[in-house]
Structures
1.
Amino acid sequence: MPQLTTRILPWYAVPWVIDGWQKVKRYPLIPLALLLFVMVIPAIFAPWVAPHDAFLGSLSDRLQPPVWQSGGTSEHLLGTDKLGRDMLSRIIYGARVSLTVSLIAIFVGGIIGTALGLISGYFGGRTDSVIMRLVDISLALPTILLALVLVAAVGPSFGTVITVLIVLLWARYARLVRGETLAIKELDFIARARVAGASHTRIMFRYMFPNVVNSLIVLATLQVGYVILFESALSFLGAGLPRAEPAWGVMVADGRELIVTAWWVSMFPGLAIMLTVLSLNLLGDWLRDHLDPKLRNL
Amino acid sequence: MQRFIAIRVLQSLMAILVMSMIVFGLARLSGNPIDVMLPLEAEQADYDRLSKHWGLDKPITTQYFIFIKKALQGDFGDSLKYQGKSAMSLVTERLPATLELAGFALLISAILALPIGVLAAVAKGSSWDTAAKIIALLGQSLPAFWLGIVLMWVFAVMLDWLPSSGRGGLRHLILPAITLGWFQVAVIMRLVRSSMLEVMDSEFVKLARVKGIPEWKVIWKHCLRNASIAPLTVFAIIAGSLLTGSVVTETVFTWPGIGLLVVDAVRSRDFQVVQAVVILFAGIFILCNLLVDILYAYLDPRIRYQ
Amino acid sequence: MKARLCSLFAGLLMAAVAVIGTVPIPASAAQVKRLIFASAGFHESNRFWTIARPDHLQFEPFWETLLGMDPKTGDPIPALATKWEHSPDFKEWTFHLRKGVQFHFGYGEMTSADVVHAHSLLIRKDSTATLRAMWVTAEEVKPVDKYTVVFRFKNPIMPPSMMFAVQRSGDLRITSKAQWDKEGVEGLDKRPAGTGPFMYGGRQTGLNIVFKRNDKHWSGNKVDYEELEFRIAREEATRLALLLSGDVHIADLPRELHKDALARGLKRFQSSLAVDWVSVYMGGQWYITGHKHFDPKAPFANKKVRQALNIAINRDEMLKTVFAGRAELAYLSLWVPASEGWNPKWQSKFKELYAYNPEKAKQLLKEAGYGPGNPLTFEIWAFTEPGESEGPAIADALAIYFKNVGVNAQVQMQDWAKIRTTYRKYQSKNIMWPNIIGWRPADNGVRNFYYSKGANHHYEDDFLEKTFGEVLKSNDAKQRNELMRAIGDHIQAEYADIPLFWFRNEVFTNPKVVGSWVYPGPAAGRSSHFELIKLVK
């Protein structure tokens, strides 16, 4: 028997407000809000939101503490770094850097991985074997080590870091998509399409791809956080983005000897990384629960 | 079954071989160890002399074949940085430290993840569940190097409860292990939670409840036992993740393990050691994968024929 | 159910805290048996002929050289050799050894045979010793009698070079021939026998190296403590943490942390002399007529550009901020007042030529053809080595100064190996790099950096080539001095590089443990003379 509940609404509660609120509550508000403020807005609107230039500083202003400590000014809310650059501005611009790197890497890696996964699952046989072996090798690569060696070889740059990330990421997409493709391959509507004369490409992209999109979205969301962590770990080891960029990882690495004296130089970028990745993970979790519970093992 | 195992072993060996080629080529591409070894006073003649002495003047394919030939006999060459020590002896010297750290980290994360996972499953949807989820997710969101630095600063300097670096006894292990292990807590916890949820709904558990067995016994004895199998499936991934994470953690805490060894080796262009470590890491990972695959094939005959 | 889990958790937590506990930290010298020095790290090996300065830190306590260094003045003083002389043509050098010096672990008395043996190690095929090129030119190393050794070289070796070779370079460490004969290189790898105030105690790679006091040292002095340990801690914050928590008693800290370390009551010991200088070198400066790789369009090939870059830098501000005031201005690279060819006029010339003047810099750049529409662009490559962490901060600061005058300088982190390979192969015309270089005699430095036969090619031109060629041929100290002075004048006037600062070695100590310490600085290990550390009573 369905349970009926009656709630006594206060006099100011208009029914459609309550309804609207119920609808909104269905969405993961906290992670979205966090993400918006820590990453998306800073990244897109950096030049307007940042109070100072992230690249210029004056040596006489160096290592000023945040505004709430003695010695801090409201000029630099979160203090300044070793070269007198405003921390808040650098963190805001850093969001742009992190977002760019991760989006490009995931986009390209995702496309490559999805394509190879579709091909592998659809055609099966030899192709499947070869591609899956490549996936295995790729997943077995000790990525941080290879990133270190690669950067030692060609020098740190945007391109190097993105290449390493793509090599790191594509295999997971390939494996996921292949699994899903295998499941769908035997279904009726695919067979009917083949009979109707549809080409392989058409079937793969018109019929199979839409069915894997949900899983791809979940995976991609979870991957962004991982990519940001990986890139900052690389920067910490000195093998990440070029120094000119205010990347969060580089900022934490720079400030690590000052953790005693000028803790804010490392603390705030680290906090930024943490909040961004946390909100992405929460969002990804929510997406997974709502889009595709099968993916709980990701 | 035999055929399956044979094919997988062969594929694994091929993977290791490809890996060795990749790391060999990249390492040689990255520069010259002689540039690190020689003082500023060196002249071109010194470069030529040392190149010849270390066999670096030969073409790269020749160097590769020499390397493979010796590697098959267990000789990964001599370290260029630690003169007088062979790459393999350095690796075996430092491996126990990393294994100790990784093992302890895994222990801590399992000890934390199991109860949290069970709690989250039992109290599904409640605030406990969310809290558990957040603690676990925090581990996956914190940059390990930052966590390490903060932990070191709070516990070693401000509070002076634990040592800040180096390897010694149990006390030295705690901070690095937490730094390394927190990441895994989320993975393990999530798995425990979902498999617990599955098991808790199953027929034989319902039967046990009907039979009147107390709830806590149902949870711990029956459910958990079945749920514990699931984390084994990701064991290979966890092992790989621990090894990779050790690189950063060992750098922060100056833990004398393989991670720190390889970071130093890359910086010094100590090819032999870099090759040895990368192949070792990859080998461990591929081996774990192989074992898990075989285990699965044993349990689920359908897989053998794919 | 939930309550049970909670209490279980709480119980575990309490147990964990109880396990951790606290250990009392020795705070007085009476309890300090082992003095621990936290070092940023060094290439670890006992094969001293393959180790470069400043990693000789690991040998200073137990392996001695023929001559010692006065801790205050740095002058050569008798150590394993009591007297030394040379032939008039400077080709033969004779050393009279101290009698009665015993090797550690019972390997007998030091004689001239051990000196010959040490020399033979330096010329091995795998040797990367600082002055191997010089040691190889020894036509004969003769043990005239038990306590006298004669070195006969193919070419004359002038006193500054020879003194460098047998003292500050740390090359010729006298090791036991008897041990080598009996145990070979494995014996040296395992437990090398030296003659110093400490004996080799053992090492764990990546962790530490330990020494034990030698009660039978030839000096007769008694060291205040029993054991010495060098512990490796790469991270700067870790070294400070170790020092503050009492885990170590001495540590070298980057200048960034000096203010805070002093505020927390740590004591600072500075070396008596300057140890390293930091200059920024500009690539592409190969002006010798007909040089294959020279590109006249390279950014630094224009003297106006070099001058502009030099005067765009506010050295005083950099000194106060990046180096926390703990350095001295360098009027040009390489030379100190005690060096051969020092010209006292360089100080005033420096004020005239290198004074901070960003307006003039912009003017010069305009004259050189650069401007807002066509900015000067190049890369600054920075690197860090253990114990030398200021590189990136210097590079960043330079980029800011250059940006102020309209120059587009991109800072890139590289590692040292990459930078060196690049400039050695003449591929460096678009980069500049700050380098912290250890003191060396002026002729050694000119040969390495400003002469075509050296491998560093910082700045080479016909004048330097000719003048230094004459230096190499000359036996006359006065003539050499004049020639070297001319070389220095030329380097300063041509703005060959961007000289910045000289600094000393500075270490911090636990004030409750370390009372006093005097050490010169430019020894092969930077920190040295550990036997002179007096503990607080």
2.
Amino acid sequence: MNNRNHIPPKLASHLLHSFLRNDLAEEVEGDLEEKFYLDLKSKSVFKTKFNYWYEVVHYIRPFAIKKSKSSLNSTAMFNSYFKIGWRNLIKSKGYSLINISGLALGIACFLFLMSYVRYERSYEDFHKNADNIYRVTLDLYKGSEFLMTDCETYAPFGPLAKEQMPEVVDFVRMMNNDNTRVKIGEQKFMEERSYFADSSVFTIFSFKALHGSLTGALSKPNQVVITASTAKKYFGRTDVVNETMEAEGGLYKITAVMEDVPSNTHLKFDFLLSHITIPKIQNNYTDQSYESGNNEYTYLLMAPGTDIISFNKKLTDLSASLKDKINEDRFQAEPIKDIHLYSNKTYEPETNGNARTVYALLIIAIFIMGLAWVNYINLSTAKAIERAREVGVRKVMGSARSQLVTQFLTESILVNLMAAVMALGIVKIGLPAFCELTGQPLMDLFQYNAFWYSLMLILSIGIIFSGGYPAFVLSSFDPVAVLKGKFRSSAHGQWLRQGLVVFQFTATTVLIICLSVVYFQIKHLQNYDLGMNINQTLILRAPDIDKTDSIYQSKYTSFKTELLRDPSIQVVSQSQSIPGTDPNEMSTTTSIFRVGEYKNSNSYNYYHYAVDADFIPAFSIKFSAGRNFEAGMENEGQVIINEEAATLLGFPSPQEAIGAKITYQIRNNKSSTVIGVVKNFYQRSPKENHIPMILRYYSGFSGYVVLKVKSSEIKEIVNYAKSNWDALFPSTPFSYFFLDEKYNQQYKADAQFGKVMATFSIIAVVIACFGLFGLSSFAILQRTKEIGIRKVLGGSVTQIVQLLSSDFIKWVLVAAILAMPLSYFVMSQWLSTYAVRIDLSVWMFIIPLVAIVLISILTVGIQTIKAASTNPVNSLKAE
Amino acid sequence: MIETRLGEFEEVMLLLVGILGDENSYAFRIAEEFESQTGRSVSIGAVHSTLDRLEGKGFLKSEMGKPTTERGGRRKRIFIITAIGKKILRESRDFKVALWQQYPAFSTSKLSFGE
């Protein structure tokens, strides 16, 4: 029968042979074959073959599997590998130290930076709905030209979206309520971080209650939910449900106390007031009105699986249908998890992080790790000659190549594990410093699984790649050549080693050049001509009053008169906002008209705030046309605009703006007269472009009191101001700050980035120098005899030093040259995000370059000089 | 120390080795017999592994049979119950019978079930 022609599947037989113990082969194969031919008689060929496979696979059992050859003495072998590895480490303590500490530094840096990256990316993760929560922002358009995106949107939007769009499950509106004065009994506080929030805030976000219930906690007017630390601050305890606190809008009942808001959210607050209270405070506010402007952070909880792109298309359509109310502006949604790193829009609740910074640090982390691995590879292959004889003998004695590989890998595991332990120590000790450096809250890294995963990852990669290459090189030596003594120099991998040195120094030079550019850029920003003078400026928070009445006015006037008696206080002014503060403190408008022109000429966002007559002199802001305000109630209605505003309003020159009438406040249709145009000044930092601004005269507005002082005795002035303040405004705490410090906080993120970069660049240089030090000292060791002979033949120390150093310095120079275009590219990208930026000058490249070359000459030089100046007799006698 | 207790599958294997006798008690035939007696399928590997274990415990011994013309001339490993193997089987049976007899419902009725 043709069935006889079938034979058991070959592949299955191969598989069987590959694992089956030899002594079992005969009987098992026999059994399987017997079954196979028996099956053939009654079953289909396919089924028979399948059965054969099934039986083969079922023979994969411990009893039937081949034992590996070395199984009997594997522990003994590992003990031996371990012992040899350990002896080798001890034998050359210097190299081991360089290797291990370099690796440890690298691993520690990597863990630090990864933890930072993890933290930055963990924003909003604690919300259970995080993946389905979106924030609706408002894209502002001028005609079809996109201007900017505002994080806040209109009050009616939330309810409208929930009603009209099925994918919107719920919404919450949060209206910012900064600079709120809170009164608890007789105690007064000034609070920056609070919102009016819909009660759905607790169903959409995952905040945890500590006392009371969060459900419906903000459903009635004048209810407030405060965080635990706010409760402690106000009452000294946390179980304060049903207590009351006074804030804008009267007395609020505390309905619940919640746990503090985690640090990794963009929306931080100390307390939430019920949103439904707002109409009591703002008379013309209704949920249905677009007139009150876009002042609401609006978050939507969406049905899971909603496609953001098509949802945004629907939002665009919705915006178009509301054209009569919101002009060309468009609603757009963004996932809340993207806000911290990618959003960066106007009126963010807090300054965002920067995805590019995060990725830059990630790259630096990988660089540093790479540098440490390169050290390991370089030093172990350079040392190959020392191990060559050992390898030869082992091979002759019958060692298989795989065993040698295992041996060298064991050594690499040993080194890596020791480095890991050391790295954990570094992390433990250095964590507070690192957290301070990056500005992230101190946390116990060891509790995060991700931390251990990245450690495991970095260890395994390190062992496999940095250990693997030397292991294969070392185990590949031809024993005959080695034992005959023909194998002299470790030319093996010479090119690779040089290439790796070039990589190391290119990476470090790029880092250092970037560092110098960042440094110069920040310096440049800080020293930039702001168009005003913010030095020697003391800012006081204006007194706590509800209305600017005549009593307040007279008190303020006497405060001012008292202060001006001190000759070192030059100007006293008050204003609604000051340069360098949160843009929230200014008002914005896009509906601005020149009276007489009936069309809305454009819809740029104009910023405006109230100032008094002394404001412009206090900041030494220069006029390009017109004049300053004069004091007096009758002058309210006069405005001074900046050049940017004058241009955008269409005035051909500042002079022509003088006397023009403009209207810019929707609720107040009175027109204002432009009496002056000032040169542009940086209300916000020079990182951004100039913004169109309107300073409006107001005789009695409180916000800030500005003191321009001229003295080094700042402390006395502060005390003088405080005593006057306490006498006149006893109910308001006296709080002050220096404007230049506050203003410079705008560069905090940049400065921090600079510091982080500086720290890690220095570590990178140290690691690279470790490697260079190891390599060069090894090379010198190998050439001891050569040096001796050269000296005997009349070579001078200088010549020898030159000879020895040039080998390494050559490659450092190559690296430096490679680094130039690379860093030029990276840095011009980085600078392009700044409105005011330095030009990349040659010096920014030359200085770091020279520094790197000098450092490497120093690293190599010390040893070469030592080697070159030893007595040749000693080196020649050796051996 | 070698485990000397007998599992249920092991006990069946021992019995099957005894039933099949000196000629046919090799892994494949035992597996076949197991299937035909119990209706449960089993892989040869599983049977072999158990036989190997039983041999380790000393309940079985084995030797290679004579080459035949079947199965490509490959020899079979024939398993034979040892004296200890027989003893443990007997003990196992006696133990269970003793247990059965202590069960009041069965002890008087010659192990017949029900009425």
